[in-house]
Fold:
Amino acid sequence: MLRATLRSLLSRKLRLILSGLAVVLGVMFVSGAFVLTDTLQRSFHQLFTGIYSGTDVQVSAVSRITATGDDERVTATIPASVVDAIKAVDGVSAATGEVGAGGAQVVGSTGKIVGSFGPPQFGVDWPSMTSAQLREGRGPSADNEIAINAALAHDAGVQVGQQVKVLTPVLREPTDFTLVGVFGFEGGRDSYSGASMVAFTLPEAQRVMLNAPGEFSTVDVKAAPGVSDDTLRDRVAAAVGEGYTVKTGQQLTDESTDTFRTALSFFNNILIGFAAVALFVAVFLVLNTFSIIVAQRTAELALMRALGARRRQVIGSVLTESVVIGLVSAVLGLGLGVGVGALLAHLFGSYVGGLTLAGIGVPAAAVVSAFVVGVGVTMVAALLPAFRAARIAPVAAMRESQTQDRPLTRLAVSGGALLAVGAALLALGLSGTAGGNTLLTILGGILLAFIGVALLTPLIARPVAGLIGRLFAWSVPGKLGRLNSGRNPRRTAITAAALMIGIALVTGIYTIEESAKKAVTKAVDTQAQLDLLVYDPSNQGATFDPSIVEQIAALPGVAASSAAYEDEAVVNGEHTFVVAVSDAAAAVSMFSLTPQAGRIDSVNDGQVIVDAQTAADDNLHLGDPVTVQLVKGDPLRLTLSGIYAKSDVVDGYLIPPSATANFHTNAPDLDFIRVRDGVSVDTVKSQIDAILANTPQATVVDRQEYLDANFAQVNQVLQMIQILLALAMIIAVLGVVNTLALSVLERTRELGLLRAVGLGKWQTVRMVTVEAVVISLFGAVLGLGVGVGLGAAVVRALRDQGITEFALPWSQMITYLVLAGLVGVVAAVAPAIRAASVNVLRAIAYE
Structure:
């Protein structure tokens, strides 16, 4: 039986290549994700080991607020007296105060800030840059001199000897410095992980980065001979007290690596998620392939049964084929995955500024996952056809008709039940009542819903395919192609379901995005009565001088102007963000805020106002005390003086303008402007542009331009998702090709008879093409329907989060329909040529 199985497999090797290729692609994605993250983890560990190789112990001040996200701004400094105290500790050979903080921006040769999203922008003191290697010039020795890293010099288009404008949290307007040096790092690096660095003299770094002359951000401590790093750490920690954090170089290396490992794990999970979608689609392709092959081998399997083969042997025969395909696919997928992982790691290293990669390795997780996934997917997909093959009776060998339609009752019941359970799980997850299992509940609901829809698809395959086919039924080949697409609803349904999944996911995501856009646009149009906005388009948190706000407010065409100061804070023990506005009355008017209790048109010293939802969540009432700890200074004891009704545009705590003295930077990052009636917005915008001529970190936009800029960021993410989901689309295309190729082989005799009665070669090509296009369009229509349904469910669940509108992504939906038609045409090429080249006499005699 084993020999017969292997011979049968080899005789159909071309038929199985496409299904095996689908599994190869999925395995490639899974193993590539593990190779990528393993390589990057080891690369970053190698990087941080080099950075902290000369550090025995480092001391930093404990911030009043733990910064969130990627905020590199220093929130606490170390006075020189502490450095002197550290030097006196037994076992310390040297203690050096250093400056390193985020927010140093260089204005390039184009007049724009260099860098925007992504890598941080540091300002440091040159004496602490012991790991730097000068490429040109020298280090700064005067307060009006700087040195920058090579990557920044290249991006800025500047050279040694030129005047370079620099912005920092303290320097709110571009200030000229002479560029006296360009430096790199060990290993030929032009930067550390893409970060830009501007090096000043120590006094200048203390002034422009910390606004604290004589103070430092960290202290580097060297151990005396014979003193271990751990011992030195404990002694220094005891000397400086609780207000400081003391860590060894090894601890800093491990913590920095762990931070990146967490981020990379998230990235890894995303890649594996897309791989899971691809493999899910591959299951349909493999299932369809084995179903068709088993149907075509009915006589062969029946003869085996008649010669004594047991049901168990027949099942084993089909599963053996699946194991062989799975093993081959796993090996090929693993090999390609290593290549893809290495390529992605190289691209990532180039993106972050020349990260030196550790050697490409193949972790055990990549190997295990490749074989578990490769073999597992094919075996799971082959189980149903295997059991179906085992039920073939020996007498079937004597029947001329080997494939008969079976009732769809079981499929309908099973599909309906799974769809109901999936919908229930999806509703539970979206309702927020699933606790810590929300994500798993939602994903499980989507998975069961997809399977349920796939099982129900045969019920509608024939009528819907027939309806779509009428578009092409104006000729005999078109009519034949239409009839062929509906003759086997199970096969058509499985093929279409593979295409459905990718289109459904993308359509659902775009439906949510389009609805969110519509909701945000409506909220801004109805609640934000402003015309212009000044902000930092680079999203680096840059601020501008308050005098600019005064100049804008003084323009004759400006009716109202209110600048916003934003920062992190701890309010009543909870980490959040607070805002202060220069003109509360103007802000209340521009954002259509209405008082629910107290006054909200002014926020005086000692007062705070908040939105009704936050007040309810924090159990606050008018007159209640509110404690606000900012990044500097002692806690503020404020009184809740006003509560404003819920707004879709503004929420959170508004504190007095005087409190901004204890912000990271006492400067605004936004300015809201309303133009006087009858005055051209474009005219006022031009006047503000002139005011901002020497403020490259800020720009003025109208309301729609601001929305478009934010929507563009979302669109970039969606495009990445669409590219990753394209893998599932490719597998779906392979499914259509595979189905048609096997179908053409199955209908060899039929094609010969059609050719004998006058069907020409080109007519045969058109017939097969129509069949492919109908199946593809059926899958696309099904995917659009399911995707819209999923999107609508999520939008309904997010109603309380502000997404109160529902909109369909019509342009994307039309695009997917057109692409589905093209997919059908492309998928039909090889099968159509094969069908047209059938030898008529041999085909008629084909058994």
About this structure: Residues 249-296 form the longest helix (48 residues).
